[in-house]
Amino acid sequence: MYIEIDFNSDEAIYNQLCDQIIMGIAAARLCDGDPLPSVRQLADDIGINMHTVNKAYTVLRQQGYVKVDRRRGAVISVDPGKVNALAELKESLRVDIARASCRNISREDVHKLVDQIFEEYRSDQSGEQGGR
Amino acid sequence: MYIEIDFNSDEAIYNQLCDQIIMGIAAARLCDGDPLPSVRQLADDIGINMHTVNKAYTVLRQQGYVKVDRRRGAVISVDPGKVNALAELKESLRVDIARASCRNISREDVHKLVDQIFEEYRSDQSGEQGGR
DNA sequence: GTGTTTGTTATATCTTTAATATAACAGCAA
DNA sequence: TTGCTGTTATATTAAAGATATAACAAACAC
Asked: Mean pLDDT in chain A?
């Protein structure tokens, strides 16, 4: 669990935590069934408050990335059946690409970046991922 | 100037304003030299405070999308020479694609979305855009 | 049993951000 | 002058983010 928090960022800490865990799942550094540290332990490791970690875990659960077991704590459990996922991605891309387009970044440039990122996320495995 | 603000969104109003104007530039509905409404008028149109619009304009100026003339007000003026643009785009894509990847959205799916969005942004013109 | 750790909930406090409300100023144009 | 522009200043309200304690029930080790 390598978690890097930028305390000078304008991004909320709990949001950075969510992002890093989700990227960890995509990169297959975190797999289905893997347990996350307890809220108290992770908070202590990073040097933040317990409730900040708890909020991140709560959001991750609501968005279908982890399940919480009273005894085992938070466990990676990705729910791939989110119907709005494609629409949400498109809306997010719309803003990013608008900014890029103003900077004369081409369609081909974006495709290259997408490929590079998928390479990062698939480097440890070649087949399916994030399934059941 | 079609501006749509979602007052129930978790996105700040001034941020929604920035995004919409930037997307307007990318879609060529706003072109270099076009004037934006005065902060007072746009605030009145949308039904928000003058300072909220002013903050949006200030951010847009800092990020190189508009220039502000004391007499003419805010004018579209895109500065394409932002060296970090590519790195910033990649960092943003990394998070988006991580989420998408967990939902089993493929590299090809993302490419399709990117193409669709570039179609939207290039529908009114075929050549260069966002230049000097 | 006791003791510890787990997630969870409930307060309370502090800080920052977002948004609003007035107000005033300087520059420019009719 | 009158009216518009951006800009700045100040104040206030509301919400979000983060922290600090504290307590509870469930699970497990002993």
From this structure: 89
Q: Is residue A79 predicted with pLDDT exceeding 60?
A: yes
Count up the domains in chain B and report the number: 2
The reply to whether B50 falls in a domain is: yes
Q: Is the CB of A70 under 7 A from strand C?
A: yes
The CATH number of the domain holding residue A51 is 1.10.10.10
What pLDDT score was predicted for residue A132? Answer: 32
Mutation target to probe the B interface, by most B beta carbons within 10 A, among A4, A17, A55, A117 is A117
Shortest-distance nucleotide from B53 CA to C1': C19
Residues B62 and B105 in one domain: no
Instruction: Classify the C-alpha dihedral A42-A45-A50-A56 as positive or negative.
Output: negative
Task: Say yes or no: Cβ of B51 under 7 A from any atom of strand C.
Answer: yes
Structural domain contains residue A7: no
Whether residue B26 sits in one domain with residue B53: yes
Q: State the average pLDDT over residues A86-107.
A: 96
Extract the tokens encoding B67: 């220039």
Q: What is the pLDDT of residue A52?
A: 95
- Using DSSP's 3-state secondary structure scheme, residue A87 falls into helix
pLDDT-derived band at B2, boundaries 50, 70, 90: confident
Quick one: tokens of A37? 């540290």
Backbone φ and ψ for B69, nearest 5 degrees, come out as -105, 135
